[in-house]
Structure formats: structure tokens, C-alpha cells
Automatic annotation (TrEMBL):
Keyword Repeat: no
Domain Histidine kinase, chain residue ranges per copy: 228-428
TM annotation in the entry: 12-30, 140-161
Organism: Chryseobacterium shigense
Entry EC number(s): 2.7.13.3
Keyword terms: Kinase, Membrane, Phosphoprotein, Transferase, Transmembrane, Transmembrane helix
Family matches, as CDD domains: HisKA (cd00082)
Coiled coil region boundaries: none
Protein name: histidine kinase
Amino acid sequence: MKPLLSKITKPFLIYVLCVLVISIPVYYWVVDTIWKSELDEHNKIIAEKTAYELNQLQLTDQKLVESIQLWNSIQPGTDIQTIEKNDSLKDSIFTSEKQKSYTKEPNIDRFRSLSTVIYIHNKPFRFTVETNIEESQETIVVIAITTVFFFIIIVLGLLFINRKLSGSVWKPFRDTLEQLKKFNLNNQTKIEFDHTDTVEFEELNQSLSKLIEHNISVFKTQKEFTENASHELQTPLAILKNKLDILLQSEDLTEKQYRIAEEMNKALTRSSRINKNLLLLAKIENNQFDNSEVIRFDTILQQSMEAVQEHFEQKNISVQEDIISDVKVNGNSSLTEILIHNLILNAIRHTLPDGSISVKLNGKIFEVSNSGTEELNADLLFKRFSKLSSESGGSGLGLSIIQEICAFHGWRVSYRFENHHHVFSINL
């Protein structure tokens, strides 16, 4: 990702560069046109001045001819000739290129020429004058160098100005961004943004303040509802379960009544477990757990493995352990125990009889894999109450709780399917 200023500056510099590149031939054409116009006027003045000076001399015809010959010999840039019969007596302006006469090296010069008629002693003469024009290649080089110089000045100036302005103009935005980064919805503390004289930033701060205030209100209401609902449900669920347990112990029940009561008891047990899990999720999301403990992860894992040993034996599941000792992490021991227990129970629940489970732990990764037949849908895997198998004994919240506990600790949980095994990995 790039900063906003760089995204604005780059197109601007490209635009300026394109304009300056296009300006080089435009500059050349404008300068060349001005030069030609000035040279045409200069040549015209020379013609008029030459005619005036020769008329002032009051020469005889013979002396005039000799003077014109002398003029032509000592003025290589001009030429005075008598008018020929087919001369139309019209002026002409043209540009020509020719080799320099005083050097043998190849050196072509460009000339701007004027051919006009002047009158000396009331006699018409064809007067031609030519003036050297600056080399076009040299002109283009000079203009290009000048353009590049100013482009560099523009770039350096723009970078300098952006650096200076970004510190002051963008300071309110950066202050707002820093406060948003530190904001925690669980603290339910409003953010007081600093006032700024920039209209856009002030509108942004006002909109954010309203949004945060609304979210805090909604979050508080949702939190209270979840906690109250979970707590209030616990008591009637416990009473119902107790009554059902008493009813199941009655000897007066028929077999049909007993089956109905047993199904009710299972459903009630599952409802109680869902309620407890929802309350646990609410507490995790509300940051109601301390995460400053130093936990012996391998010790908790060994205890959980011993606690579910009976489940392994019931389904005749072979277990492979690769657990290193003295693995310490920072976090909450109760949540870590729930995470390990849920992950192992999830593997047991979704492993067919005579299957296999592998548990690995090193300093960075905790991994549980179990045998399976087909890959699970990773998009639905950690969603609440999603059903990815025919197993109905779970609450549908086990993997969601695992994901929330990992997020609470700053760990990352992932799933993959390889070699006919479902593999859940947690990067500690």
C-alpha cells in the first residue's frame, strides 16, 4: 500500500513531465518563428539602409558600378545585381542551408534570406541579403536541457512542499487515525477528537463520533441482553433437568414414557450446554478474562488427554502423541484448557470407530488431526451452529469458541485436509 500523498504526487509528476516534453518542440517552433520574423525585419532594414547610403554618395554611373562590385566582394552576406529582363520586381523571403565557404570541414549553416528591389539613382537593383540562423540542433538541446532543469526543480520543490505540508495539513487526520487504533469497544469510552480548521477532517471527526457513540450504545445493549439471557436461562434449565432426572428414576414410567423423557433430557442437556457456550463466547468477546498468566501448555494438554482417554477406548481410536515438554505461553489457563478440550473432543466426535487421532505440540504449533473421508467446507467451518457432518451431539459452537479463544490470545487457527486426515493447527 502507498500513502495518499504519493498516489497524488505520482500522477501529477507524470502529467508535468508529459507537458514539459510536449513543450520542447512547441518552444522550438515559437522561438524559431520569432527569430525568422526578427531576421526578416533585420534584413529589410539592411536593404533600406544600403540603398540610402549609396544614394547619399552621389556617385557617377561608372563609380556606382565600381562601388557595387566592391560591395559585393567585401560583403559576403549581401549581393547587389542589376535587374534582369525577366525579373518580376517582387520581394521574396526564404530559408536556405549551405556549407560554410571559409572552412573545409562539413558544416552546414541555415540562413534566412531576403531578395528585394532597391533603387539607386532611380535605377532598380536586385538586392539579396542573408543572415545566419542559430543551429536548430543546438536550439533543441538548449531547450531540452532547460526543460529538464526546471522539471527537476519542480520535482524537488514538490517533494519538499509535500513533506512540509504533510506534517501540518495531515496532522489532524493522523491524530484521528491514532485514536481509532487505540479505541476498544469493550471499554465503552467515547473518543474526543481534536478540533481542526479543515472542513473535511472536521466532518470526518463528527461522523466518527456519532458512529462510535451509536456502536457503544448498541454494544452495551447487546452485551447486557446476552449476559442477562444466559444467566436467567440457567436457573429454569437446571430446575427442568433436575425434575427430569427425578422423573427418569420413577418406576411407574412405561417404556414409551421413559424414551420420551430421555429424549427430553438429552435436548435439555444440549440446550444447557449451548447456553453455557453462548455465555462463554459473550465473555470472551467482552474481554472478561485475564490473559497475563504464564501457562504450561504441555501440562494442560497432558491433563486433557488423560481426561478423554475413556472416549478413545470407547471408539477404539488409536492415538499418536508428539508433545514436547516445557512449552510456555502467555494467556488465560481456563480458556486454554477449554480450547484444548474442545479441539480434542471435536476430533473424537468426528472420527469413526477404529480411526486414528494425532496430537502434536512444539514451541510454535499445536496440531490435532483425525482420520476422515472428505474435506470440510472451510468457509462454514468456524461459523456458529453450522453443521458440517451428520453428528448432532455437539452444540455447534465448539469451533467458534476455539476461534474466539485464539483471537483473544492473538493465535491463529487454520484447517487443512491432507492424507485423508482433518488437520487443525494453532500457531501459538
